[in-house]
Design a protein that fits this description.
The protein is an all-alpha fold. The chain is built from 47 helices and no strands. Helix 6 packs across helix 8 and helix 32 packs antiparallel against helix 33. The protein is globular and about 105 Å long.
């Protein structure tokens, strides 16, 4: 036994002083003991004599596992021994035959030991009550007279029974539901009344001498009220006791709160609505209303709050379900009586479950949706609900500095509040739809009061009021926002014209700008506010805000504002550019680059906004050229200076130069987004010339920094942009650009390269044939050399970064080949320099079409084959563009892809994507028959179908359906043919 205790102590050691090998040895030793047929006796014996809590816990845990896992294989004697031993320990008794003076009582141990003992007893109850051990509760109740230790243990058993078996707060299996029902039914019939009576007696006896024990008893009782006979609690004895405990001053708050919890359980009990209303009336809950006002921060108030909310919720539910108008009115009168207290506790007490309060308030607001106009009392309730929302969404001033600098604590608090506010904003929008004018006036007053309030709460109140206005915007229709009649227009004007002393605060500045942006539709119709909007974004409230996070967000939001206002801003362009001059210079200045700013593209939104402004045709041509030149010229000059310095050996900080060039490319890229292809190529070619000159400069970056991937990626992104902006006039640049991009490409960069080629093909179609014929051999050579011939591995080894990059490259290659084939460019594959890769490409496409794990990739490959058949096989007797291609299609593609791959049982017809692929395979057969005629049909019917033991009559039917004009009928027949052949297969044929 000493070895057992030593092993247990070693296995539980967390000090780090025990070697891991010794610890593993101890665990192994204990595992062996667990397998012993005497394990139950060993554990009970140690529980009787060991004072070490680690040993006690291990023994109880071991008994719990043995009962739970091996109960059915335990002998009757062993079950009886464990049952009797555990029960005796729980009753504070010595075990039979144990007289040693050193006997240890488990109930004198720490709480976690007693909880584990309760868990063991509940596991026995799970298997044995009421069929085998029918008297467990009846036998235990007399022992409660032994005092606090046994009463406490009884509470732990009841709690464990609820947690482990009865409570619906945890997911249960069907078997567990059945056992819980069996246990509850037996308890109702046998002992619930005795347990309730015992609880009443204990609380009455110990309320003054041991209030903590009484609290435990009531907390356990609360768990059972939902499923026992309500008459056992709601009577002239128990309910008066509960209210006496709640209302009497001087008793500990924990006890008073536990009594309130029992009353809440009574209030929440499911029953017929008419009976529920009678119950709620009889309780006279109004007696407790005054308690929350006495000390809203107390523990008692936090317990009374859910009682009041639960009571109000039940009254609301009664009013919905009752048919009698008199009873409905009664429930609403009681609800009106409790609502002020509900509003008070929601605003002033610590709330554990804000969600339940919001759900109640949402239900209450829903009752007003069909009422118009609202009564004065209802309007008062609406204002109180808005007060609740405003109070609840306020940040705690204690986190003000953390939130402003956004450190770890601030970030966690902001994330918490974002989640916490969601339900309250849903409630706000619901209120806003029911009473829009009241909501708008409330927000206006909140904003005015917040501005005027003392500085110690000013920040949080202003932020909350602005957040209300922002969230309220979601409940307003676009039309209503544009019209902006009444309070809404006044509110927007107030928003734009008010200066907040706390505007330097990050949260206030951000929500202010977001709110201004949300109400842009109002400004679109009301031009007189344009100057106020611009001021908000261009002064220290926005882009010039001292906080970099606010400044960057302001840049993005300003870009959105420019997009929505467009031509209305033309008269302000000079002023806007002048105000943005320093921000533009700061973004692109070499001396201003830092690690904090690098890598973020937020600042480039300033350039996108400027591009949208000056790129409009409403801007005079000469002014447009002037504006664009003033931006592009210094940027290009800066790039040239950086490129020259890069050529100098031992140049200072090459990383800083690279980051700087990245920023400049992003700026030019963003700027170009405002210029349409029609403007730069047709109406104002001078603008197009500027972008071509810029492209000339930026392409030098690929020469100066051929192996710097971030720069190559940024230049590629700019070329994408220029393809859309310059159109076909970008062609002269493409051969050199594509050559440079391909030269040093890694797999990840090759993906971007192929995406660029795909863009060129989709935009210019056959115009890029010459370019494509020139680069395709090099592209195919590089990629086919990189990609493995065998399928990618599955399992853990497939999750490496290298494998993922190769898989992405393969998928993009298939897209590339598909784009070529479907844009009348399949002749590229047949050019003299490309033919060297044709056989490998065809084999890759065929293998992929037959067995790739991505069904959509397989579909794309089949579509490629269909297109190649149409392009390269002009007619059934015409001359072949590619000698041998027709035979390859008939003997390889038709056999492997159109037949064997479909016949394989992994081809699942129940999958939607697979059915789409099947449709393409069916279409391929129709196309082959149209192009090859009987040559295809004879081969397929005489060689492929017989290999799968296809009956002659089905083969003949295949011919008839294929020759017919109805492709849907052919598809349906071919599916039934495949399913029929699968049934005949019986494993005699291996499909490859």
């Amino acid at each position: 036994m000493e070895d057992l205790e030593k092993a247990i102590l070693i296995s539980f050691d967390e000090s780090g002083s025990v070697e891991s090998a010794l610890k593993l040895q101890a665990v192994g030793f204990l595992d062996k003991i667990k397998e012993s047929p005497l394990i139950c006796s060993i554990c009970v014996e140690r529980l009787c004599f060991s004072k070490l809590v680690q040993v006690q816990f291990w023994c109880l845990q071991c008994l719990h596992e043995v009962i739970r896992v091996r109960y059915s294989s335990m002998s009757l004697d062993e079950k009886g021994f464990v049952r009797k031993s555990m029960f005796s320990m729980a009753c504070f008794e010595r075990l039979e035959g144990v007289d040693d003076e050193n006997f240890v009582r488990v109930l004198e141990g720490p709480p976690f030991i007693k909880n584990k003992l309760a868990q063991v007893l509940v596991t026995l109850i799970y298997f044995e009550y009421p069929l085998i051990w029918s008297s467990v509760f009846v036998d235990y109740i007399p022992h409660l007279g032994k005092g606090a230790p046994v009463i406490d243990m009884f509470c732990r058993i009841l709690n464990a029974l609820d947690d482990e078996l009865i409570s619906l707060d945890y997911p249960r299996t069907q078997d567990e539901f059945a056992v819980a029902t069996r246990v509850k039914d037996a308890m109702r019939q046998q002992c619930v009344a005795q347990i309730v009576r015992a609880c009443y007696d204990i609380v009455s006896m110990y309320r003054n001498s041991d209030p903590d024990l009484c609290s435990s008893v009531l907390d356990s009782m609360r768990r059972y009220i939902s499923w026992i006979d309500i008459g056992l609690i709601v009577n002239d004895v128990f309910i008066p006791l509960l209210f006496e405990l709640i209302l009497v001053n001087g008793l500990p708050e924990q006890l008073r709160g536990a009594a309130a919890g029992c009353v809440l359980a009574v209030v929440s009990k499911r029953m017929d609505p008419q009976a529920k209303l009678s119950l709620l009336q009889s309780l006279e809950i109004s007696r407790v209303f005054g308690l929350v006002a006495e000390d809203s921060a107390s523990e008692l108030a936090s317990k009374i709050a859910p009682l009041l909310t639960g009571y109000a919720t039940e009254l609301l539910e009664c009013s919905k379900k009752l048919n009698s108008e008199n009873l409905k009115q009664t429930s609403m009168e009681l609800l009106d009586e409790v609502l002020p207290s509900v509003f008070f506790v929601t605003q002033n007490c610590e709330i554990d479950n804000a969600f339940s309060i919001v759900q109640f308030l949402l239900g209450f607001v829903a009752t007003m949706k069909c009422l118009s106009p609202l009564t004065e009392k209802q309007l008062r309730h609406v204002r109180q609900i808005l007060e609740v929302i405003c109070t609840q969404i306020c940040y705690d001033p204690i986190y003000r500095d953390n939130l402003d600098v956004l450190d770890k604590i601030g970030r966690e608090e902001e994330d918490r509040m974002v989640e916490f506010r969601k339900d309250f904003f849903v409630l706000l929008r619901s209120v806003g739809r029911v009473a829009p004018d009241v909501t708008q006036m409330f927000i206006r007053n909140s904003l005015a009061n917040a501005v005027a309030s003392s500085s110690d709460r000013n920040v949080e109140e202003v932020e909350a009021a602005l957040s209300l206005f922002y969230a309220f915007g979601e409940s307003i229709s676009d039309e209503a926002m544009k019209i902006g009649n009444g309070p809404l227009g006044q509110l927007v004007m107030m928003l734009l014209s008010t200066t907040f002393a706390c505007h330097s605060n990050r949260l206030v500045a951000l929500v202010y700008l977001e709110t201004v942006t949300r109400y842009m539709k109002f400004v679109q119709v009301n031009d007189q506010f344009l100057h106020l909007v611009l001021a908000a974004f261009l002064d220290k409230r926005g882009i010039h805000h001292p906080n970099i996070n606010v400044s960057r967000r302001a840049s993005y939001l300003f870009m959105r504002v420019v997009k929505s206002l467009k031509a209305k801003l033309v008269p302000f362009i000079e002023n806007i550019l002048q105000n943005l001059q320093d921000a533009v210079a700061q973004f692109t200045a070499m001396s201003c680059m830092s690690k904090e700013h690098s890598g973020s593209e937020d600042g480039s939104y300033i350039f996108e906004a400027i591009g949208l402004l000056i790129g409009m045709e409403d801007v005079p041509p000469e002014k447009q050229s002037e504006y664009l030149s003033s931006l592009l010229t210094p940027l290009c000059q800066q790039v040239e200076v950086l490129l020259i310095s890069a050529k100098v050996q031992n140049a200072e900080d090459p990383v800083a130069k690279i980051v700087n060039i990245q920023q400049i490319i992003m700026a030019i890229n963003a700027l170009s987004k405002g210029f349409s292809e029609r403007l730069v190529t047709a109406s104002r070619p001078a603008i197009g010339l500027m972008f071509k000159q810029t492209l000339d400069v930026l392409l030098q970056i690929l020469v100066a920094f051929p192996k710097i991937e971030p720069l190559r990626t940024k230049v590629t992104s700019f070329i994408h942009r220029m393809v859309e902006t310059l159109g076909a006039s970008v062609f002269p640049y493409l051969p050199k650009v594509l050559e440079q991009l391909l030269a040093e490409s890694e797999p990840r960069e090759l993906v971007g390269f192929l995406v660029l080629i795909n863009q060129l093909i989709c935009k210019f179609k056959t115009l890029v044939r010459d370019i494509l014929e020139e680069i395709y051999p090099a592209v195919a050579g590089r990629i086919l050399n990189i990609l493995p011939r065998d399928p990618f591995p599955s399992g853990p080894e497939s999750s490496t970064e290298e494998i993922r990059e190769l898989q992405e490259l393969q998928r993009t290659l298939y897209t590339f080949l598909h784009v070529i084939a479907t844009h009348d460019l399949s002749s590229v594959f047949l050019s003299p320099r490309s033919r060297a890769y044709l056989e490998v490409t065809m084999e890759l496409l065929l293998n992929t079409a037959c067995g790739h794990k991505d069904i959509l990739v397989r579909k794309a490959c089949v579509q490629i084959f269909i297109r190649l058949i149409k392009d390269w096989c002009t007619s059934s007797d015409g001359e072949e563009l590619l000698p041998g291609f027709q035979a390859y299609i008939i003997q390889a593609f038709a056999t492997k892809c159109c037949f064997y791959s479909v016949l394989d049982r992994s081809f699942e017809f129940c999958d939607a994507n697979t059915l789409v692929l099947f449709g393409e395979i069916v279409l391929a057969q129709k196309v082959m028959y149209e192009k090859f005629g009987n040559e295809f049909l004879v081969h397929f019917v005489s060689k492929d179908l017989p290999a799968a033991h296809c009956p002659p009559d089905l083969a003949e039917e295949y011919c008839r359906k294929l020759r017919g004009a109805d492709i849907k009928a052919f598809k349906s027949f071919y599916q039934s043919l495949i399913e029929s052949l699968r049934q005949q297969q019986n494993g005699s044929l291996v499909f490859r």
